[in-house]
Automatic annotation (TrEMBL):
This is Alkylphosphonate utilization protein. Residues 46-113 form the Protein YjdM C-terminal domain. It comes from Clostridium weizhouense. Residues 4-32 form the Protein YjdM N-terminal domain. Coiled coil: none annotated.
Length: 113
């Protein structure tokens, strides 16, 4: 029997090999041994306007008035946003803002609180 590695994301033992990739059927994570052994070089790094590294769950402050499509009032400078979540993409911060609801912000318009 072939000894396959456990999933690095959810630690499931039910992984299988597909070509040069290993796949976890429980969380759908795909990886190859070279990237796993080299470390997480593809880790998402998001920096605020001052160059501070942001993490999930941080609080940030908006540094300028931001216009919102479909809304008559902008998000004001100085608005504090709690419990952010980092995502990959152009707008790399997912959050909820009081009075506006769920939003996506660019990290260049916030600073770490």
């Amino acid at each position: 029997m072939v000894n396959l590695p456990n999933c690095p994301k959810c630690n499931s033992e039910y992984t299988y090999e597909d070509g040069n990739l290993f796949i976890c059927p429980e969380c759908a994570h795909e990886w190859n041994l070279e990237s796993q052994n080299a470390g997480n070089d593809d880790e998402l790094v998001v920096k605020d306007s001052n160059g501070n590294i942001l993490n999930d769950g941080d609080s940030v402050t908006v540094i300028k008035d931001l216009k919102v499509k479909g809304c008559s009032s902008p998000i004001k400078k100085g608005t504090k946003v709690k419990n952010i979540r980092l995502v990959d993409g152009d707008h790399n911060i997912d959050c909820k803002i009081d009075g506006f609801g769920a939003m996506q912000l660019k990290s260049e318009f916030v600073k770490k609180a």
